[in-house]
Amino acid sequence: MLFVVASFALTVLCWGLYGPLLHEGQHQMSTVEGQYARLLPFVCVGLAYFAVGVVAPIAWLQTRGEQGHWTSRGALLSLGAGALGALGALGIVMAFTFGGKPSYVMPLVFGGAPVVNSFVTIFLARKMKEIGPMFLAGLIIVVLGAVTVLIFKPADAAKPKADAAVAAKTDSAPDPAPEGIEDVVVEQTKEATKTASNFLLQLLSIATVVVCWGTYGPTLHKGQAAMDNSKMRPLLCVGISYFVIAVLGSELILSVYPENSHWDFTGAVWSLMAGAAGALGALGIIMAFNFGGKPVYVMPLVFGGAPVVNTFFTIVAKGQYNQINPLFWAGLIMVIAGAVIVLVFAPRGGPKKPAKKPAESAEPSPA
What we know:
By secondary structure, this protein is mainly α. The protein has one domain. Helices cover about 75% and strands about 0% of the residues. It has helices at about 1-30, 40-65, 70-95, 100-125, 135-150, 160-170, 180-225, 230-255, 265-290, 295-320, 325-345. The longest helix has about 45 residues, at about 180-225. It starts with a helix and ends in a 22-residue tail after the last helix.
């Protein structure tokens, strides 16, 4: 259990830093002030996954080797897990592209993904009877605590001067020429339709992330088990999937729908560090599974702890110590308390029953 905790703690730290690092990369690679690049930083994430998740495992397997072996089922499941992780990351990018805000996108993701993960794990393992009320209570506390931390984290300071300048400019602008009532109705209808369409696309993107990241852990666990608990082989498959979706897929989208972004050295470095953090987090999950951890409690703790690390990193980077809401601390306490409950009451399964020896056939004693 100590090695399990240390392994998923690595994931919590890395995935907690993933968002701020990628956010900075998006800022540096944008060509429009106040906007963030979407797909170019995602390409860098895919390149980092290729280095950490493909090149490094190949070198490890060639020079040192490890337990386990390649199987078609294990490779397909691990590739599928990588695809789920990459599609989930792309779903967040698309949710922001359609106008979603981190203030509600990320709480919905981190609140919904562990719930989906737990139910998928329970369903696949057919261990519904082993789930006790205390474990479910701990899971709910972790989710609620993570959402509370995200909602009540310190907000960026407003810019009243800039807002006042914009308002003054708007007030001084001449009124547009009057239009016919039909044109006004048509314009308002188009605007309302666009808003409703973007909102539905936001919900679809968020739902995609929740489902993909919720099923990521159980799928990866089964892929690893199918390869006899190999560590590098599943990671290699995850890296390949990320490269295909994040690099090749993003380049394909950019060729059809270009964005206001450009290649920038500083932005690329930040985005590559984000991708490396994501890949190391995936390795942490694989290690946790390798030491006996189960998706039913490893993934909820990861999804509960990563946003807390993310928020604290943001607070330290922006110097927002004096803006912390008491409810933020309450949410943090809930995450810690729920994590302890989940670990203590996590289903571990009963001891394996010894195999029954075949009954010896009765032979007639010699006369």
